Every structure is written in structure tokens, then in C-alpha cells.
Amino acid sequence: MNPIHPDDSLCYLNGEYLPLSGARIPVLDRGFIFGDGVYEVVPVYHKRAFRLEPHLDRLQRSLAQVRIDNPHTRDEWRAIIDRLVRSSTPVDLAVYVQVTRGVARRDFAFPRNVTPTVFAMASALTRPSAAQRDAGLRTISVPDARWLRCDIKSVSLLPNILAKQAARESGAYEAWFVDKDGNVTEGGSTNAWIVTKDGELVTRQLSNSILGGITRRSLVKLAADAQIKVVERPFSLEEARGAREAFLTSTTSFVTPITKIDGKPVGTGKPGAVAARLRELYYGYMGSPEPGAA
Ligand code: PMP
Which residue CA neighbors atom 3 of ligand 1 most closely? Predict the structure, then answer.
């Protein structure tokens, strides 16, 4: 039995709720054949979906960008997610939602009259441990070999997978993608931030080069409300290496400090005060205490 997805955990597939172990899709599904689909990950804290609407907005946007009609109304999406949350034992969850173009004879161009495949599952939320948060994470840098539409949350994730694997093999948590100009775009599955030597809080501006993280968006707002100035601009790997602090953000990684880039310490080599303050603001916004917080 898979410990992450116990056989009896319920999932949603094309209108049905069934045990994950029994869910099947045809091999001609274009998600399987071409990676022709998009996804979302919605966080749930204490059984309540957090920032659900921006996640559903982003799903809608990803679908529109790849020209798949949204197969569900907002209410239907809410009902699917709600049912999966109610049927799950853990109270903190990550609900994964995937829509592919559907099942059709293999042909690159879109098939006609195809019904999208819809799949959703809820898994226990695994966040960085208190030890990782307190010591900080390591990141490595890799060339950004992705396509030019990283703003779409596509299930085609080969460059991200290879980057995250390279990170894991070198004992790091994340890989930072570096573009042809030497600037950091984002991490394999997280947004990238630094606090410069001059105390400027910097994250790359939204564009097709990065995914518009929902956590990123929350933090830009929370920081502004707390009179912490955020500058949205590119920053180079060199600047990051010489920064006072670095950290990453995502739905499942929250706000977690980075203390080493390519094996070299960032700033003092210890997690910094700005990341700690932002994490505090974020947990306040979630309305859920940080596990293991001092
Ligand atoms: N960038 C990439 C490439 C990602 O996969 C993710 C995770 N979805 C993020 C950034 C962070 O986005 P969010 O805060 O919405 O989880």
C-alpha cells in the first residue's frame, strides 16, 4: 500500500468518486501521450481551502491559454474539492486538480468533440520540517531550459523534474532556474526571493518566464500592508549569492529560507529576519498557527 495515498483515499475522476488505487485512464489520454493538460494545487488548512478563488482563477487562465474549455463551473469545482476534503483524514491537505484535453487517436493537432479528462485527489500536506525551516534550505542553480510560457501551469514538467532531481542528488531542496542573461527566474516548483545588501526585498516581476505563484501574490500584498517594500525585478545569480537573505515561496513550501546557493552561504549562512517576519505574516493571514513555532 502506498503510504502517501492509502488505497482507500477517495479521488475524483470524470464525475465519479472512487478509491485512488482503482482510478484508471485510457492510454490514449492526451495527458499521458503528450502532457496535454494543466493542473492546480490548492492548499487546505484545518479542512478549509485557503485562497481557493485565486487558484480556480489560475486554473481557468491555464485552461484558456491552452484552449481547453473549463469542464466545471466554480460551484462544481468547489463541490469536488469539498467532497475530497471531507473524506480525508488529515486536516491539512494539498488538493491536486488536473484537466487534460481528453482521450483521442494520437494526433498533435486538437481532436474534435473530445471531452476533457478531470482528475482530483487530496494528499496530506507535507511542508518543510521545523528543522529545515530553522536551518534553512539549500538550492542549486541550473540553466532555465523550459519553454517560453512558464506562466501556464502545464503538466509537461520535464525540465522542472530534471532540475529538482539534480537538486535532490546534490542534497539540495530546490533548483533555481537561471535565464540566458544570468538572472534567476524561479525555482523548480517555487518562486524565488532575495533581500539585497541594501535591504531591498526583491522577487522577479510577473511575465511568461515564471508561474504567478498564489503564495507570491499573497506575500507581495502582506509585505506592502506591513510597510515592507517589495521590488519586482529580475535579480542575477551573482546578486543572490551576495544577498543578505534568500528564500522561496509556494503553496506547500510556505516561506522558507535558503541559506546556501550552489554550496556557498547566503549572507550569514543563517535564516534571516525578513523571511521570518514574512512567514509570520503569512501564517497570520492563514489564520493557522505555524507547527513547531517557537
Ligand atoms: N513556480 C513554479 C514553477 C511552481 O510549480 C510553483 C508551485 N505551483 C510555484 C512557482 C509557486 O506557486 P504557488 O505559490 O501558487 O504554489
Answer: 189
Supply the angle between the helices 52-65 and 214-225 in degrees, to the nearest 10. 130
What pLDDT digit, counting tens, does each position of 93-152 carry?
A: 999 999 999 999 999 999 999 999 999 999 999 989 999 999 999 999 999 999 999 999
Q: How far is the CA of 40 from the centre of ligand 1 (A)?
A: 9
Q: Is 153 a catalytic residue?
A: yes
Ligand 1 and 260: CB distance under 6 A: no
Angle between helices 214-225 and 273-286 in degrees, nearest 10: 100
Residue with the nearest Cα to atom 8 of ligand 1? 189
Query: What are the pLDDT digits (tens) for 155-171?
Result: 999 999 999 999 999 99
Going from the N-terminus, what domains does the chain have, and what CATH number goes with each? 10-124 (3.30.470.10), 130-286 (3.20.10.10)
Phi then psi for residue 159, to 5 deg, are: -65, -35
Closest residue by Cα to atom 9, ligand 1, is 190
Candidate of 142, 211, 254 to mutate for ligand 1, largest count of ligand atoms within 8 Å of Cβ: 211
Strand partners, 131: none
Give residue 210 CA to ligand 1 midpoint distance, Å: 9
Query: From the CA of 160, how far away is ligand 1's center (Å)?
Result: 11
Are 260 and 138 within 8 A, CB to CB?
Answer: yes
- pTM attached to this predicted model: 0.96
